[in-house]
Amino acid sequence: MTAETVDAFHFGGFHVVQPATGGHRSGVDAMLLAAMVPDRGAQKVADLGAGAGAAGLAVASRLAEVDVALIERAPEMAQFARKSIALPQNAHLAARVSVVEADVTLKGRARLAAGLDDEVFDHVIMNPPFNAAADRRAPDALRADAHAMTEGLFESWIRTAGAILKPGGELSLIARPESVAEIIAACGRRFGGLEITLVHPRAGEPAIRMLVSAVKGSRARLVFRAPFVIHLGEAHKFAPDIDDLNNGRAGYRRLISKGFKK
Q1: If we measure between CA atoms, which residue out of 249, 224, 234, 257 comes closest to residue 10?
Q2: How many domains does the chain have?
Q3: Is 196 in contact with 222 (CB distance < 8 Å)?
Q4: Is 211 domain-assigned?
Q5: For residue 250, which of 56, 86, 134, 241 sits 20 to 30 Å off, Cα-Cα?
Q6: For helices 153-164 and 180-187, what crossing angle results, to 10°?
């Protein structure tokens, strides 16, 4: 049995069961990703590569009318997601969150057979593995699976996002800045209206993450938004806007109006 922890997010607004040492443990990345889903009333959101479900649960915690599907390939991580949903602390949102055990990279009939149907979701979020396979060797198989990037990863994940999104639906993702060219190429003709926000740990330091949003079928131009700075000075205290996003007090709205279709 894998040792596990139960961790609170959004000041106790929801909790997540996570592996104590192995696998991927969620934090600020997942909360920033979740904050990218706008408040538009009733909508369906898919969290691709959901792991234990932190980002998807954060969406459900902040937006009371949203249904969330946690899409996860690894059976052990999918089980952590199911445990998270079943926690008594999450009873207020459990009915709106489900787990689909499926490989995001599946195509065509195989994808449909796995339960990833065409044009079902209003919004797709994703936090794909972002380490090059040769960068660092993870100490366990679960963590390696969650962190190691494979060739063509963004193309396959964004292809699936485009298939399961309704026309006019939105894609949001968090990744490393060095993946920007690959992400733009993968969006191709599927998505437009890209908005990219670089995320810096502190003022004057290089960006370590970027937030990317796009609209299925849009032809709007690419926009680079004002950057985020996570920490103020040398301390570990969050900047006020980041603290609000991290704790579910605010969402990060798109600049481009797109005529949302349900």
Answers
A1: 249
A2: 1
A3: yes
A4: yes
A5: 86
A6: 40
- The Cβ of residue 26 has, within 10 Å, a number of other Cβ atoms equal to 22
Which letter, b or e, does each residue of 164-182 get, where b requires 16 or more Cβ atoms within 10 Å of its Cβ? bbbeebbbbbbbbeebbeb
Which residues span the domain enclosing 155? 26-246
Please write the tens of the pLDDT for every residue from 39-77: 999 999 999 999 999 999 999 999 999 999 999 999 999
> Is residue 118 pLDDT above 70, yes or no?
yes
- What is the mean pLDDT of the segment spanning 225-245? 93
Structure pTM? Answer: 0.89
7, part of any domain: no
Q: How far, in Å, CA of 46 to CA of 148, rounded?
A: 21
Any idea how long the chain is?
Answer: 262
**Burial class, 238, CB count within 10 angstroms (exposed 0-12 / middle 13-18 / buried 19+):** middle
Q: What is the pLDDT of residues 14-33, one digit of tens each?
A: 999 999 876 667 899 999 99
Q: What is the CATH number of the domain that holds 163?
A: 3.40.50.150
Q: Decide: residue 234, CB within 10 A, 0-12 exposed, 13-18 middle, 19+ buried.
A: exposed
Domain assignment of residue 104, yes or no: yes
55 neighbors 23 (Cβ within 8 angstroms)? no
| CA pair distance 29, 151, nearest whole angstrom | 22
Task: Tell whether 254 is covered by a domain.
Answer: no
